[in-house]
Structures are given as structure tokens and as C-alpha cells.
């Protein structure tokens, strides 16, 4: 501890006046509200899982202390008692300038709930650092804090600063080295404001969409695919109240960050702070557990490395990154390779080879054992001839002689693997049975709230393990104890993505080929679509800027109206009821009554065309019947002249496109509509006036009905004369 | 330099009626008393790009333009005039003259570009990167709008319009995304695989595609041949090349898709080598490389081509004359802030000015024009051989050649084409007067477009 403390005090003194004003507070969420670490997290909270033999939360707390935070509120929910007990017994309860208080909750199911609870407690008095207990970092907060404060001074809406770091996802798997999905962030390069955050670019495959208003407001935007979210946030007090105001915010990113970015009423802004040389990463899944463990062993996280953090048991760092505790019993013929950690009191037998692995305290490892890239926690017994590759083995596991763990296996607490049993790749084995009621994804996300029940289960289990398990012992070979969890359907293919094991090469090759094909097909679509769109655009063109969405909407609306109308015709629905139904549609599609009139008229004429007729005159008769019968329906949407003109325009459109048979009857139908007093003469005359200036091709119908219009005009003049 | 230049001079343009007519096709529309085409040709000559094909829409227009070029650029330029039918689009025009293209690279310039950006620099950038296409991008002009504003003055209050949405790589050398026309008003859709390859993309809406492109000839001809629905360079061909830059189809001549896939499967051990290469070396010098890398040097699985951008410095002048508003702006700028575009003096050799007539700064008076007494001219261009009476006030306007203006006329924010006759005391405000029109005595017009009826 000594060395680390020195480092910490030195850092704190770098910025004394900053701290003098307001003690810096932090909220540490000791519950990830996720299920990625199951089955391990059914028995122990994630923050207490050992990371290179030290509980994760210690890394986080040590960093917070060194970064100048003076007061930490640890929020614990799942297995809260274990967390509280651990903190009470640890060094953190007795630090002079660093207080750690716990806030316990039993019914929070998300980070949102946690922050709402903390808001109620009223313990946060200024800016605070929001972090989860599984974050490893060594960054200096000073600069980020200062930036945050200065921004806040200028703009009260700048309420949060997110820490990001360069990390380019693999071009093949589209996944960062931490095993998180690709993340798209749009950032204004000048102000560093975060404009868009898309962690699961779910919408259109192959494309990422940027809202047009963003582009309108920012002349320059940088869209990043090469940044990693460190999940270290510097927040202003308002963040807590925002969570309280928006009680549906659950997830910090998916709801809160996206919610703020989308909401332009309140105008809250989020900014980013990029770190370059320092380290920050969050353990989100088994792959990041593997990656971060390796980073720690390779000392990227200095000073937060095992030999500095636990000063009590002397850990020696040897060549090639081998860490060895003081009292390890190592056989002469055993070979401990590079980047390996061997914990206190561990015994290793003859001809055993260990490399790129972590072995915890008090483990007993037999002879001829091969361990590669694996994480073996405390008090594990591995008998002779076992082989482990890229596996996680929890406390108290016993592997009988000759057992083999294929890559990606997770053995939870106290599992016993039978003699010469081969545990298949990516299996998760636990003494606890797999919870069965996991159906929807959304629930899965917050399912850790049920980890309270998990705790109960485990307590119950401790009592009567033996009888229960003897029946299923066969699952893990002779003498084995534990259940192999089945993988959910659909997730199976994705299992390798988040596993401790590196991604097999054949998967990568397959992915590459898939991607190729996908792109080719996608591009085909894109090209044909845009080709069509642009067929008639000229070089200077931007005339045609129809909003396609609203057009689509209208098409749907028209279809609905037509269906309603047909039902009304066939089932003899009363006109009043039909009016009501169309009105309901109008409201639900947010249309104007102009649109209703157009759509109803369209449906009527369509039906007239579709009903049997042999000659034009019969068609006209059909139309006349239709109009006579349903004129009331149509009229109830014709309130003013504009709507009547719309009907004429609609009819014209139909004559040109869908119902060409009417083209010849245009003037007759127009006359009919006039006789039935559906169209007033003003409407017809205004339509004629409007058309006067149109292109020749547009005037076809005007010319056809010239006589009628002439007649109308004369009639009007006569009236005037009278 | 092995560069051939194609100047797409156009011919007719709806946006510019009534300024252009049969006798004055678009390339010859006078800007500060010189045909607009002069500015492009002048810049090309300065850059020592002398092998030119000028493409004009319509035979008649081609004759006019050809006549003017042979008169003006007797020295140094090797110009061919090609007439193409109207309304076939820029891509269609190139397709029509495609067999004339022989050089390794082709520079395509729009004939209505008034700019001081050296075309040679664009060509050099193109060569340096060995790009398939290089587009010249310039800052969006401050005033002016897309709509042909007959109501010129009002538009100046608008904020700069957006013409393109452009995606650039972090070094601002490569063009990763381009949206034009109506796409700008929609949400931008950016291709993920390009983003994956580059990591970050800067999206700019303050840049404009100035319609000056350098193409690799082979690529251009192949795209023209294969995609016969493409009509426009700006809206079809360039976006297509940008979209497909990481999986170029343009160069995959003979290899059919099936064969290609077969190759990939056969060479899967090679692919593994490739994978390990990618994993081992996360940061490659150019984002094109991991894609174009060949597994063993024989079978080419993927092809890429580079799309580059040449970004003109923000101080340079670059405007396209494609609307009335742009016409007014260019006339104002060329006589004002961008007067370096004109190589010679502003007031013609022998203007005859009456007594107490003042010609303000940023004005231009063509040779042989005469003005009566007590006239005022401010921020306006007056063409050759105009006869202007007394007490005439001309502000913010363009008056072309051989115009007669009677006493007491007031002309504000208007364009008066050649051979127009304005009788006494005519008042024009924000008007366009087509060639040969006669405005009778004492009439007042505001915001109107006046033209002779075509027979």
C-alpha cells in the first residue's frame, strides 16, 4: 500500500486549489445490472471478482483516490451484503482523506434506479464522477474536470463529460479489443460536443444515419468509429435530477445519453474528453476481463498493478512479466512462462507448464498440467494431466486428473470436473441450475435484480448440495459436480464474441467472406435505388425535394381509407359511422381533411371502375350511383374550396394513372359532381384558373372540360348581370 | 502533363432565362464584360493545361462558342469544340465525346466556374495519389441561393446554403462520402464499411463540390460504358465512385463474381495469412491497403480505388454561375473583392462621361459606352457601346452591351441584357430584362422578368 499512497498524495497536491473549494465526490455503481458474467455473478457480485488476484473494486477505488476524489458513494444492490462486508473489512474503511460510504438497495433494477435513489438521499452536492465498480483506469481527472467546470460556467446546459479513448475495432468482427460492439459517435471537432451515440447501430444495416438537423447545425462533424467509451463520466448535479424527472431512464447510455441527445427541448449537452496516453477500460464481458487482465500484467495500468496495489504480500516481478508471490512452491521441472501471475501459497507440480495465465492464492496444481491463457482463482485444485486453455476457473473448483477445458470454458464456484472429462468449448458450468425464466432480451438486461434470488438460492444450496447433484453428476463425468448451462438459441453463434478465448481463425475467415457478400448485395441495392431516383435530375437540380416519408404515410393512409370505404359499402355501414371511422383514421395518421376527401374520392372512383361495366356510359352510371350514394360521406370532408379543388386534382391524377378509363369521362363526371353539389362552381373555376398557367401536358383535362367551364362562366356572368 | 481537359460549357439553362438566348448561349453570358467561359479557359491556360475539348449543347451554340474562342484564345490553347444534343446531362455529354479521350487522366471542368483555384493543383493532387477521381471542393459562397432569385436583394439575408455533405478522412485527403441535391435535406446515410476502414470521418456541410474533377480515363470510360443510366457527373458518377471505393467494380474487368468467390475459398489458407497480417498490424498507412492487400500476390480478391479531394483554401474565390443570383454575385465580386480574376483595367479605354456623372468604386464600364450628365453608377457593370442618357441612376445592376437607357431611368438590382432599350424615366427594381426588349416610357417594374416573346 505504501508505494501507492505516495503516488496518490503527490497527485492530489498537484491541484490543491481545485480541491479546496468543493470536495470531489464520486458515485461508484457496484452492480453492473447486466448478466454477462453469469453464472459467476449468481454467487458473487461482479465487483468482487478477482482481476489479477485483486477484486475489481479495489482498482476502481484506488484510482478514485489517486485522482483526487474525497468521497465515494458505493451503490450496491445485488449481493449487497458481500460488498458491504468486503468494504468494511478492507483498507478503504480507514483511509484518512478518502471516505467510502455504501448505499444499499434491494429493489433497484438499473443504473437509473440507483441514481434516483441517490438523488433522494441528497448526498451529492456538486460535480461528481460516475463510474461503475468494474473500471480500471489510471487517467488524471484534473484536466477533464477543469474542462467540465469551464464549460459549465459558460453554458449551464453542459452537464456531462464522457471520457473516451482511441480504440479501433477490428475490421472483421467490428468489435473492439474489449469485446464490446462497435460504437459510432459523432463529435463536433471544435467544441467536443457529443452529437450522436450509436452503440448498437441497429437501424439500417450497412449504413449509419446522421440526423439532418445535426448537419445543419454543425458545419463540421467527426463521426468516430475508432473510439471506445470508457464509462467514466463527470457529471453535474443536474444529472441526478434528470434521472428523477425521467423515471423511464434505466440504462446510462441507451436511455440517458441517447435521451439527452434526442431531446432538444431542454437543450442539455454532453461533451467528450479524449485521453491519449493513460488507461481506462471497463470490464463488460469475459473478453474484456481477459484483455484487461493482460493489460494489467503488462503494466499499462501502472501504478495500479498487483505488486504496487498489494504491498502486504510481497510480489516479485521477474523477467518477461512473471509475477510470483513469496511463498510459491514450484517444482524444479515446472515451467512458468511469460506474463503469468502466481499467487501466494500455490503449489505447482512437476513438468507443469503455465503461460499467459493468472493463478490465484492457495491453489494446488499437479504434474503434467498445461495452463494457457487461463484465469484460475483461489484455492483451486487441478490434478495431474489436466489441460486448460483460455478458461476461467473460480474459487474452490476441483479438476480431477486428466480433465480438459476447451477454450472459452467458465467454471463457477466449487464445480468439480470428473476424471478425464472434456468440457466442451464455451461451456458455462455452475453448481446452480440455470434460471429458466429468461425470455425476452429486455428482461435479460436487468435480470441481475433477480440476483437477489440468486443469493437465496446459493444459501439454500450450501445446505443440501450433495443429494441434489448426485443425480446430475454425469453432466461433468464421473465424480463431477455441477450443471452445464445450455446456451440460448440464437446466442450460440455469438458465444465466441465475448468469450475469454481468442476468436478462432476460421471464424474470422468466415466473417470476412460473409462481409464481402453482404456488401456486394447491399451495394447492388443502393445503386439501383439511387440510380432510379436520380434518373431525371439535372445538374443543378435540387428541385425535387419531396419528403418521401410523408408520401409513404399518405399511401398507407389512402389504403386504410379505401379499406374502410369498401367495408362500408359491402356491409352497408351507415354513412355517419363511416364518417366517424375516416375521422379516426385522419387523426391517427395526422392528416388533414383535404387528404380524407382525396382518399375517399379515390376509393369511390376506384370501386366504380372495378365494378363490372361494358361501356363508358355504364361506367359513368356506376360512378353516378356511387357518388349519389356516398355523397354525404364525401361532403363531410369538403369544408372549403381548397378541399374541393383537391378532389378535382385527385380525379385528374387518377385519370392519368390508375383509372385511365375515366379519362374520356372527365367532363361528365365533373359535371355530375357539380350537379350533386359536391363541387361548387368557384372550386371548378379556380381549378381552371390554376391550370391555365401549367404545362401543355397538364392541360389535357382542362381542355376537355372547356365547354363545361365556359358554361359555368357564362352562368356566373348571367347571375352577375341579374 | 498527360492531361486532357474537358470543359462542359453547357448551352441552355432554364435557371438563367431570360438572360440567355439563342444568340447568347450560357458559355458566352458576359460576366464583367467577358464571357463566363473566359474565366475557366484563362485559369487553364495559366496552369499550362492546353489540350482542351469544349463541349457545348446544341450545334448553333457550339458555332457561337467556337467562333469566340478562336477569336480570343489564338495563342497557346489547343481547343476542340464538340457539340452534343441538349438535355443529355453531364455524363451523357462525356459519353458522347468519350472516344476523343486519349490521355491518361482527364480533367473535367464546368464551363460556368468562376474561380481562382488553379486547375493544375487539382491535377497534381490527382496524380500524387494515383486516384481514380479527385474532386475540387471549395467553401460555400457566402451569399446566393439555389433558387433562381429574381428577387435578388432579399436573398442576401439568408445564411449560406448547403450544397453538399462531404465526408473526409482525418487527413482531409480522401473523399469518403458525398451527398448532393435532394439527399442533403434528408438524414445522411453513411456507409459503415468505409467508416470501419477509416475509423473516423469528418462530415462537412460547409464545402461545395465545385464541379472540377480529375478522373483516371480508364475508370471514367468504364463507368460511362457500364452504367448507362448515369446522367450526371455530380449526382451519379462521382457519388458512385466514392461509394464503391473499397470494392471497386470499375477495374474488375473479366473476373465474374462466381470465379472470384471460388478463388477466395480456395485460397483460405492465404486468407488466414491475411487475417494474421491484419491482426498483427492494426494501424496500416492507408485505409485502402488492408482491403487491397493480396493474399499471396496472385489472386486479387478485392480492388480498391482512391477518391481524393482537393480543398481550395478558404480565401480563394470559387462560384458557379448557375443561377441568376449567382450571376449577380459574380458580377459584383469580380469587379469588387475578387478583381484579381480580371487581368486588365476595369474602366474601358474610352468611356465618355457627361458632367457631374459619378462612377463609384467596384464598377465597370465597357469600351465605347457613353453616359450623359449627372448620372450615378454604383457597384454595377456596364457593357460596351451602351448609350446612357442623363440623370440615370444604376445601382447593383448589370447592363450588357448595346443597351440604350433613356434620361431619368433608375435601375436597381437588375440585369439588363444586350440590345435592350429603356425609354425615358423607366424604373426597374430587381428586374430581369431579356435581350432586345423595349421598355416603354415611364413604366415602373419591380421584381419582374421581362422578355420578348419567342416566335
Written description of the protein model:
- The complex is a heterodimer of chains A (722) and B (455).
- Chain A contains 24 helices and 36 strands.
- In chain A, the strands form seven sheets. A nine-stranded mixed β-sheet of chain A has the order 16-17-20-23-26-29-32-35-36. In chain A, strands 5-4-1-6-13-8-14 form a seven-stranded mixed β-sheet, sandwiched between helices.
- In chain A, helix 16 packs antiparallel against helix 17 (575-589), helix 18 (593-610) runs parallel beside helix 20 (641-656) and helix 20 packs across helix 22.
- Residues 1-19, 438-472 and 522-548 of chain A have low confidence and may be disordered.
- Chain B is of the alpha/beta class.
- A seven-stranded mixed β-sheet of chain B has the order 5-4-1-6-13-8-14, with helices on both faces. In chain B, strands 16-19-22-25-28-31 form a six-stranded parallel β-sheet, with no helix packed on it. A six-stranded parallel β-sheet of chain B has the order 17-20-23-26-29-32, with no helix packed on it.
- In chain B, strand 4 (51-57), helix 2 and strand 5 (78-84) form a beta-alpha-beta unit.
- The radius of gyration of chain B is 25 Å and the shape is elongated.
- The two termini of chain B are 48 Å apart.
- Residues 144-159, 250-285 and 292-301 of chain B have low confidence and may be disordered.
- Chains A and B meet through strand 11, helix 7, strand 12 and helix 15 of A and strand 11, helix 5, strand 12, helix 7 and helix 8 of B.
Summarize the structure.
The complex is a heterodimer of chains A (722) and B (455). With 722 residues, chain A is α/β, with parallel strands linked by helices. Chain A has 24 helices and 36 strands.
